[in-house]
Write a structure and sequence with these properties.
The structure holds two protein chains of two kinds.
Chain A lengths: L3 E10 L2 E11 L2 E6 L6 H8 L7 E6 L2 E2 L10 E4 L11 H11 L5 H11 L15 H13 L5 E5 L7 H16 L3 E6 L2 H7 L2 E6 L2 E7 H10 L2 E7 L2 H9 L4 E7 L3 E6 L2 H15 L3 E6 L4 H10 L1
Parallel strand pairs in A: 3-8, 3-9, 6-7, 7-8
Antiparallel strand pairs in A: 1-2, 1-4, 4-5, 9-10, 11-13, 11-14, 12-13
Helix pairs in contact in A: 2-3, 2-4, 3-4, 8-9
Chain B lengths: L4 H13 L8 H15 L4 H36 L2 H5 L5 H32 L1 H28 L3 H19 L8 H12 L11 H24 L9
Helix pairs in contact in B: 1-3, 1-5, 2-3, 2-5, 3-5, 3-6, 3-7, 5-6, 5-9, 6-7, 6-8, 6-9, 8-9
The chains are: A alpha/beta, B mainly alpha.
InterPro entries (chain A): AAA+_ATPase, ABC_transporter-like_ATP-bd, P-loop_NTPase
Family (chain A): Belongs to the ABC transporter superfamily.
Protein name (chain A): ABC transporter ATP-binding protein
Chain lengths: 304, 239
């Protein structure tokens, strides 16, 4: 069993604090590192991978410091966000070279297994320079997995993948986690995290905003009112009808822009609205969820 | 600390895969071409030997080749981020650097020594040609260590390397004699002249100082570079 521990970790660049007093423990299984762009996810990942020294605090993998410790990579794999690959190599050469650099007893079969795992066997003899973004991504994952590491860190691994590849990558991470590996992947997309991992660490503006089971964090998010902008053929009559709904917690009328509706529950409100409009004979012209941006969700979490 | 053939082969393929490697061609061609031209027109060697062999060959061709190659084997990988693939392996940082250093020295020696041999042979014969080859090899050892270190210290290794070669060794070396003790070019001249004495080369530094200084520069740069690579921070792109 391998754990990654961050204890009161801060990292600053000059006057800018990128990561502020973060403590977390990653246990075997899949953990999602969620946060808006620029929140400090990459900095956290790079400190775990031994590519950055924490300015304060300690980062350890199974008790050993991550910084200035190359033997760490015997048990750890990293897929960075930056899409840097040796474009002049084929996927086979690239993954085989990784296996050799790990001094594996049978590099060829390890490379074959890793390429099969990411479904790159068919294209393995073409130069990486000719690959699509998704293929490069999978090749890099194969190289990071070739030594069967206990810990795998992935920075935005779903970027650039088409839906089928995304599904496949999610299954792969899920299976690795189920097999007892410690997997951490970062993402700024809520739904990705929801589908792969039960455990999340939410990081906002360099701070750990929430941590733990996804469902309880999600509940925190669904408990807050959702705000919708609505325009219809008769705003005032619609407002009266909406106030009768249990899911609606408030309605404002602005003669210029229409209604601003606050709903406690996203699902029941969006299901009820067309029914009400139909029953009242009102024509809906516009329905826009006005606070659905990810940042507002994070802000809400940060306040909670 | 061992040499790692996998790293060396990826490094070499990376070096020759970049268009930058073409920059290595004009200087050797120019040196050989000019030497041939002098010989074909029966210009006496004492008139062209010094400016061509030292002025172009040892002062420009050798250090510039070492600079392009030395920064190419590591600096470009740090620039484009591919260095991460090698750094995430359980290898001693000394092993990584040594493997890259071997490639840098090898490519520099081949690129610089062949034209220097031809030009030296045309100027005075096989002995000077071979002397220049040996001198170039010594120069490649010191320059490559120096420029590998520069790739780790700054994000503009080529610029700083040019300043060293052109300003320190070129300008100051000519006018301020004290700087010559810290000039790889001078060590190369001394060693070449000792192996193949001619009146074409004028050594300014003693052989002992040259050998000791070259060894100190090479070893010192190597130790610093390994230490620097151990603490190489790889920052994220977005945050």
């Amino acid at each position: 069993m391998t754990t990654v521990d961050l204890t009161s970790v801060s990292r600053w660049y000059g006057n800018v604090v990128a990561v502020n007093d973060v403590s977390m423990t990653l246990a075997p299984g899949v953990t999602g590192l969620l946060g808006p762009n620029g929140a400090g996810k990459t900095t956290v990942l790079h400190m775990m991978a031994g590519f950055l020294a924490p300015s304060k605090g300690t980062v350890t993998v199974d008790g050993a410091p991550a910084w200035r410790n190359p033997s760490l990579y015997r048990h750890l794999g990293l897929v960075s966000e930056r899409e840097a690959v040796h474009t002049f190599l084929t996927a086979w050469e690239f993954v085989l070279a990784s296996a050799k650099l790990h001094r594996l007893p049978d590099p060829a079969s390890a490379a074959r297994r890793a390429l099969e795992l990411v479904e790159m066997t068919d294209a393995q003899d073409r130069r990486i320079g000719t690959y699509s973004k998704g293929m490069r991504q999978r090749t890099r994952v194969a190289a990071a997995l070739v030594h069967d590491p206990q810990v795998l860190l992935l920075d935005e691994p779903f970027n650039g993948l088409d839906p089928r590849q995304r599904m496949h990558m999610m299954t792969l991470l899920h299976d690795l986690g189920a097999a007892g590996r410690t997997i951490l992947f970062s993402s700024h997309i809520l739904e990705e995290v929801e589908q792969v991992s039960g455990t999340v660490q939410v990081i906002v503006a360099g701070r750990l905003a929430a941590s733990g089971d996804y469902r309880s964090i999600r509940r925190l998010m669904t408990n807050r009112p959702h705000v919708f902008a609505v325009q219809s053929s008769d705003d005032r009559r619609l407002a009266v009808a909406l106030m009768g709904q249990a899911s609606v917690t408030g309605v404002e009328i602005d003669p210029g822009t229409g209604l601003t509706v606050r709903a406690g529950d996203y699902g029941s409100f969006t299901r009820a609205l067309p029914r009400i409009a139909l029953g009242e004979g009102i024509r809906l012209r516009r329905l826009i969820p006005s606070d659905e941006s990810l940042e507002s969700v994070f802000e809400y979490l940060l306040e909670a | 600390m061992v040499y790692n053939p996998t790293i060396a082969s990826i490094t070499a393929r990376g070096l020759f895969g970049r268009r930058r490697v073409l920059v290595l061609l004009p200087l050797p061609l120019l040196l050989v071409g000019l030497a041939l031209l002098m010989r074909a027109n029966d210009v006496p060697a004492r008139d062209w030997g010094q400016p061509l062999l030292v002025g172009l060959g040892l002062a420009v061709l050798l250090p510039i080749t070492a600079l392009i190659v030395g920064t190419g084997v590591l600096g470009s990988e740090i620039d484009d981020g591919t260095v991460v693939h090698i750094l995430t392996k359980p290898l001693s940082r000394a092993e990584i650097l040594l493997s890259k250093y071997v490639v840098a020295v090898g490519v520099t020696v081949v690129t610089a020594a062949v034209p220097l041999f031809v030009a030296g042979y045309l100027a005075s014969g096989v002995r000077l040609g071979l002397g220049l080859v040996a001198g170039a090899a010594l120069g490649a050892l010191a320059y490559s260590a120096l420029f590998l270190l520069l790739s780790l210290l700054t994000s503009r290794p080529v610029l700083l390397g040019l300043v060293y070669v052109l300003v320190w060794e070129g300008l100051l070396g000519t006018w301020v004699s004290g700087t010559r003790v810290f000039s790889v070019e001078q060590y190369v001249i001394t060693v070449t002249d000792r192996l193949a004495p001619t009146d074409l080369l004028t050594p300014n530094v003693s052989l002992t100082s040259s050998l000791i200084m070259a060894a100190i520069i090479t070893a010192g740069a190597g130790v610093l570079a390994v230490n620097r690579l151990r603490s190489l921070s790889v920052a994220g792109e977005t945050s």
